[in-house]
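REQUEST FORM: STRUCTURE PREDICTION
Request ID: SP-0412
Submitted by: Lab K.M.
Chain count: 1
Length (residues): 416
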Amino acid sequence: MKEYIRFRTLGFFLWMMAGAMFSSCSDDKNDPEVEDEGKSYYALLTGDMTSSPYAGYITTYSEVPSGTIDNVQAGSLAMQTNGMRYYSPWVFKRTSLASQGKDEIIRYAVNASGNMEESGRITSGENSNYYIHDESNGFYIDLDRGLLKIQKFNPSTMLRTGEIDLSGLRNEKYPYQDVGTNILASKDGKLYADVFYNTTDIKGNFFQNTPLGFVELAVIDVATGKYEKSIRNENINHIGYPSNENPMWSLGDDGALYFCSHGFGATGAGGSAIVRIKKGETGFDKNWIIKADDLTQGTSFGTVCVDNGKLYTQIGSKPLSYRGLLTDAIYDYYVFDKENPSAGATKIAGVPQTTYTFQCGQSIMAIDGKVYFRVVNNDDQNGYYVLGDNNTATRAFNVASGGIVWGFAKLIKKQE
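STATUS: Completed
RESULT:
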C-alpha cells in the first residue's frame, strides 16, 4: 500500500513513501522514576498510518493485555497514532488530531474513570522536540524563540518556566546551526542536547546535509541551567531524529545513556551504530560501539534497551529502504552482552520477523521485571512478545482490531 509521510525538520518538508519513525527502550525503573504506591495502568496506542491525520485510539488496561484484543473500547480516547512518549503518570504527544500538524506538547493522564484524557498542553513553535527530566523539570525546543535556545517547563503545571541560552556556541564556520532538535536526554543531573550544523544556510536536515564526520552534544547542568561543555563522537554522522516521537535513546538499568545513530542519508541507510555515555561520565565511551554494518550491511538501529546486563535491539536481515519503513517485515530482535558486544549477537527465538520500529518509542519494553518486544507484520502479527528462558520469547498479546500498535507504557496513578 502506498503511503506518504511528511518528515518536517526545521521548516523543510520531505514527502516520501513510508510512514512516521524510530524507538528506544522504556523501563518503569529508569524512564520515569515511578513509585510502587498507586494504581497501575497499561496504556496502549493503536491506529491507522495510511493517511493523515493518522487517527487511532489509546486505551488503558489494569494489567498487561493477554490473548487477542480489540483496542477500541468504551473509554478509549481518540488520538493521533504516530507514536507517543511517557513519564509516569503521564503520556505526552507533540501533535493532536485537532492541531492539524501544528507542533504542541500535549499531556494526557488517567482520569477518575480509569481512562486517558488531555490534562494540559503547551503551544510550541516549529520542531517541538521535548524531554521530561522529572515532575518539575522539562525541556523543549521552540525554534520561533531562538535556534540556540532550549525552553524550560514544569510538567506538573504544563507552564513554561524560562530558557537556556546557548548562543555562545555559535560556530560561524557553519551557515546554519541549532540545538536540541534531534536529542534531549539526561542522566546524573546533566542534560544532553545535540548541536546540529548545516553546511548551507537553509535549515535542512540529514537528507540534505553533507555528513560532517561527527556528532556533537552540549552538556548542561540541570539544576542551574548552565552550559558546561560540548562533546563529540567521530564514529557516527547522525544521532537522534527530528520531529519524531521515538527519541532513539534509552537510559539503561546500568545508568548509562545508549544512543541510536540511524545512519540515514540522501542515498539510503549506512553507518548506523549504537554508542553510549557511561554512568558517572559526561563524555562518549570511546572504546564501545556496535556497528550495524558489521551485522547486516545497510540495516539501521532504531531501538535499544539495556536490562540486567543485556543489550536488546532490532537487526534487519536485509538493508532497510525508505519505502519499506512501515511494511517490510525484515527485522529480528537480538541480544548482546552489553560489556562485550564484539562477542556477537544472539537472535531471540520464537519471535516472527517484524517491521522497523519507526515512530514507536516503545518497541522494546522492560516492564514488571520482564522484557517485551513489539511485533508487527503482514501475517496478522500486531502486538508484543515477552522474553522467557534461553533467549526465547512467546506471544503476550495480539491486537486484532483497532489498528497497528504505536505505543505502549505502564503508568502509575498516585493515590489522591
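NOTES: The chain is about 0% helix and 45% strand.
Reviewed by: T.R.
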